[in-house]
Every structure is written in structure tokens, then in C-alpha cells.
Amino acid sequence: MGITVELPFPPRALHPNSRVHWAARAKATKQAREDAAWWARAAGVKPMRKAKPLVVFLTFFPPDKRRRDWDGAVSSCKAYFDGIADALGVDDSNFRPGVIRWGEPRKGGVVRIEIAEAS
Prior knowledge:
Mean pLDDT: 93
Number of helices: 3
């Protein structure tokens, strides 16, 4: 099993260092989770019969050339992980970290999430 989902670059409200009202953060989190689940299903994800360890690989294509830290970028994707786990029908505690990469900037920004069964 291997899936690839491309999602919009996480909004600033999801970054752990952002200073936004709790309601704005909750709204952004809910939207990101729903979007990730929808895009995962559109990519052909089916619920798994039995939960297995899954490795998550991330490639960030930021919207501009500003410097960003990898831990903040990964933390901003928490709602995306939850949405993909919803589509798979598994708990996201089955996810294991894989490689984190940075690609060239793209207009609007994109994060590519690839999930594969752990070997």
C-alpha cells in the first residue's frame, strides 16, 4: 500500500507559534482535517481492515523563499495527519516518521504526504 496526497501549504493559524484566537485555530483545524480526509479518499484511499504501522514521508513546497523550521512545518500538518487517518480508518498513532524534504517554492504552497506500510 502506498498513497500520495497533495494538500495546500498549512495555514498560519495551524502553526504552533501562531498567535490566533482559539476559535480561529479550531475552525482552521477542522477544515484542514476535513480537506485531508476528502483528498485522501479522492486519491483512492480505502479503510484498512487491520491497522499496521505506516511510514509518513513529507515534502514541503513553500509558497515563497522565506526560511521555515521543519518542526513547525510538521506540527502544522497534525490536522492533515488526522484527516488521512480518518480516511484510512486507523488511529494516527500507527504513523511513523519518515523523511522530511523541502522542495522549490510553488505558488500558494503545497505539502505532499506519502504514506507506505512499514517494512
